[in-house]
Amino acid sequence: MSKRRPREAGTGFIGLLNSYWHRLPRNFRWNIEDTFQPEALEERLLPNEEPQLEIRMAWYRDIIGGIVFHYLLGATLLFSSALLLLSLFSLVLSPYLALIPFGLLIILIIYGTLERIEYRQWRLLKTNARLIISLPQPGSRFLVDNIELKGLPQVVDTNWSRNPVWRVFQFITGARDLYLSLTAYRFVEGTARVGDALIIPDVMPDDVFALKRLIFTIPAGGPQKVVFPSPQEVVFTEPQKVIPTDEYNEAEEE
């Protein structure tokens, strides 16, 4: 069995919180983690199991969260602090003006957090033993549902999103909604969609191609080369010339 890489704890304040979190009892921690996000497979691999492919939604489905937590958070805090100090020494500016960008930041943090939770809940993970599909629990915004399959999908289809906003991003990036079905040979009438399929939204084309390479495999030995023989020339024999004999002439005379 191959060696498993230890889970990265991160750096700074996030790394400190992560280290304290992993000190909790394992079963309790797993129960909380599996409630809101896909299970950490690196800690629960089966014997001789190896991950092969992990697919997430396209980057633009987490664009607000990425901007807020990586760029806007620190810039907005600095701007609000500078505006607050300026208003304290100015008779024109009100201190309440410093709360406007801070209030907008709180709104963006809430929206970015909800977007990031949904982004992390969608995951397709293929190992050499199983296929794990994680998606938000229907009817429950913050809960996640994990589906484990032994077989592989028989039908892989890509289609445009029904949301016009995401459709614009799909046009730019080439991403599509991924339709997976185990036994679906029934197609929806009047559309190009596969019936009874599981839909994973906004998957990048490289990820779709990598999944197809794992599903539609060629049997061992590689493809057999088919050789078509060249047309054979058919030679028809010439008609045989009949040479009359003496017996043949005597028969005619009689």
Summarize model confidence as the mean pLDDT: 78
First-to-last CA distance: 101 Å
Give the SSE string.
HHEHHEEEEHEEHH
Residues in helices, as a percent range = 25-40%
Total count of helical runs of at least 4 residues: 7
Structural class: alpha+beta
Proportion of residues in extended strands: 15-25%
Stretches with pLDDT under 50, minimum 5 residues: 1-8
The total beta strand count reads 7
Which descriptor suits the 3D outline? elongated
Oligomer kind: single chain
Strand order of the largest sheet: 1-2-3-4
Q: How can the largest sheet be summarized?
A: 4 strands, antiparallel
Q: What is Rg?
A: 34 Å
What is the strand and helix layout of this fold?
Blueprint: H1 12-21, H2 26-36, E1 51-55, H3 63-88, H4 99-121, E2 123-127, E3 131-136, E4 144-149, E5 155-159, H5 164-173, E6 176-181, E7 198-203, H6 205-215, H7 246-253
Antiparallel strand pairs: 1-2, 2-3, 3-4, 5-6, 6-7
Q: How would you concisely characterize the structure shown here?
A:
With 254 residues, the chain is α+β, with helices and mostly antiparallel strands. The chain has helices at residues 12-21, 26-36, 63-88, 99-121, 164-173, 205-215, 246-253, and strands at residues 51-55, 123-127, 131-136, 144-149, 155-159, 176-181, 198-203. Helix content is 39%, strand content 15%.
Structure description:
There is one protein chain. The protein is α+β, with helices and mostly antiparallel strands and 254 residues long. It is built from 7 helices and 7 strands, in the order H-H-E-H-H-E-E-E-E-H-E-E-H-H. The strands form 2 sheets. The protein has a 4-stranded antiparallel sheet, with helices on both faces. The relative contact order is 0.11.
